[in-house]
Design brief:
TIM Barrel, 3 domains, 21 helices
Length: about 550
């Protein structure tokens, strides 16, 4: 039984005023000796009394987090949404107003999460003749879409406990950045849908463990959840936690797309006593991961660390996540794989378009390689060293729809992760207050009152529905292209307009290396010079 809480807060000021006015009017009507007094206050009493009842209903209903946090006043938002379809520039704009994601995409995610009709009238709304417009080719012999769940097996020859993963999973978002209820809903939705939930670098929290969904445990440079008192990696603690059956894969975070080279940031306002205990950090101070790892400093040492993670995890798949920066650095990692014979089971490529709750503007907009270029570069590099068949490749960075997934998988990804999409399924409205601990929907806050607004049982269903509906949409796209599984996608299945009169296929835009070409020597201009610059013993280039 949920306890109704009405603390003093500006968020409840409208409800408080209505309740006080209602009480005063009721008192006047009952206790005033003038027999006409009740007639005078009747209409205002009905108005303010009705608003008070509406506010109480808002607080107790469980379908809209914004109404639970902003009773009465939040109805203005829904009123404005009613007229949105008539405002084309509002509904179909991409990012002209500085919002981090298209409102049209957000609306589609909401509809799929709520199992509402997600179709659109009047056909294509985009300008198909603008530079950069992309499309997927269809077949004159389409196939009935598959009912398969689209899974892949992650785990190379050195992995003794491979994991059968969905091709669509929850990207890294830490407890601390997310609220307890958000973590609960995401993880329980993942359990119901049979897909994986990446913890982010904030550690494997009790809220992940509580719901029992499959976990990808991410380890960042702060080593939260497996660190010594002085912030170093603690192998014994790592092995203890990684032995948990719920943890299916372990992931080393090298960098994050939205702020590569910066380290993770959890503002002091969000470092609660609980988080300080889980992470092993001090309350009242920004929780900042170091920009680089202390456990290794060279490509060879990095591969040895990944191999040790796999061993300590009892043979579970071990890999790493990064945003591509200097290309010779990743090729140095490739050379380290060849030299040590240690290969990761998977690599997740994050793009500089990836999201975050706190990062400098310059880092978010102008640092790091975009996801598609990064995925294709890594895919080709692994092909060039004859390692692509043993290493699975994940992609994350503004992926929310089936088209986003198909496009990434056509140029090299085996599976996709989404953070924003699953946040939208929880009810995120992009208020851009993630770093303030004042999230209006309870998704990114440690405030227990605001967090209460996110009603877990309802959101579990929405997380599950979004995943399920997106995979159905992917199956329909594949069927239209005459394909059965996303692993059949190739660059030739997509095209991009490069000028008003010119079109290139992705095969032309993203040329592919031949197996072993880097080892044997290549004339490919993208790799020739940087391959020579890369060295397994150091991330610094050979000049």
């Amino acid at each position: 039984m949920e306890t109704l809480m009405l603390p003093f807060s500006p968020r409840f000021i409208v409800l408080t005023i209505c309740a006080v006015v209602t009480a005063l009017l009721l008192g006047i009507g009952i206790f005033d000796h003038n027999p006409k007094a009740f007639d005078v206050v009747l209409i205002p009493l009905l108005i303010f009394g009705g608003l008070t009842l509406l506010g109480i209903r808002d607080l107790t209903q469980k379908g809209h987090a914004v109404l639970r946090n902003y009773p009465i006043s939040a109805h203005m938002r829904f009123l404005l949404e009613e007229i949105r379809p008539e405002m084309r520039q509002y509904f179909f704009e991409s990012e002209k107003d500085g919002m981090p994601f298209s409102r049209d995409i957000r609306a589609v995610v909401y509809q799929r999460a709520k199992m509402q009709l997600d179709k659109r009238p009047f056909g294509t709304q985009e300008d198909v003749y603008r530079n950069g417009y992309e499309w997927m080719h269809h077949s004159v012999a389409p196939k009935a879409h598959s009912n398969e769940k689209f899974r892949i097996t992650i785990g190379g020859p050195d992995c003794t406990k491979p994991y059968s993963a969905s091709v669509f999973n929850i990207s890294a978002m830490s407890f601390g950045a997310l609220s307890p209820n958000a973590v609960r809903a995401l993880n329980a939705g993942a359990k119901k849908g049979g897909f994986a939930h990446d913890t982010g670098e904030g550690g494997f929290s009790p809220y992940h463990a509580e719901m029992g969904g499959d976990i990808i445990w991410e380890i960042g440079s702060g080593y939260f959840g497996c660190r010594t008192r002085d912030g170093k990696f603690n192998p014994d603690e790592f092995a203890r936690v990684a032995a948990t059956d719920q943890i299916k894969m372990v992931e080393l975070k090298i960098s994050q797309g939205a702020k590569p080279g910066h380290g993770g940031v959890l503002p002091a306002a969000k470092v609660s006593e609980e988080i300080s205990k889980i992470r092993g950090v001090t309350m009242g101070e920004d929780c900042i991961s170091p920009p680089c790892h202390s456990a290794f400093s060279t490509p060879i040492e990095m591969m040895q660390f990944v191999g040790n993670m796999r061993k300590l995890a009892g043979g579970k798949p071990a890999g790493f996540k990064m945003c591509i920066g200097h290309p010779w650095e990743f090729l140095a990692i490739c050379k380290a794989m060849l030299k040590t014979g240690i290969y990761p089971d998977f690599i997740v490529i994050d793009g500089n378009e990836g999201g975050t709750g706190a990062a400098p503007l310059e880092f978010m907009d102008h640092l790091g390689m975009p996801m598609r270029e990064g995925v294709n570069f890594v895919h080709n590099a692994l092909v060039g060293i004859n390692a692509r068949d043993r290493i699975k490749l994940g992609a994350s960075g503004k992926i929310a729809t089936a088209f986003d997934m198909a496009r990434a998988m056509a140029i090299g990804a085996d599976w996709c992760n989404s953070a924003r999409g699953f946040m939208f399924s929880l009810g995120c409205i992009q208020s851009l207050s993630c770093h303030t601990d004042r999230c209006p929907t309870g998704v990114t806050t440690q405030d227990p009152i605001r967090n209460r607004a996110l009603y877990v049982p309802h959101k579990i269903e929405r997380v599950y529905n979004y995943h399920h509906s997106t995979l159905i949409a992917l199956a329909e796209l594949l069927g239209a292209a005459g394909l059965k599984h996303p692993q059949e996608l190739r660059p030739i299945h997509f095209s991009q307009r490069t000028s008003t009169t010119e079109v290139c296929t992705f095969a032309q835009l993203y040329p592919t290396l031949q197996p072993g070409e880097l080892i044997n020597g290549t004339d490919d201009i993208r790799f020739r010079d940087v391959w020579r610059m890369a060295q397994a013993e150091s991330f610094s280039p050979v000049m």
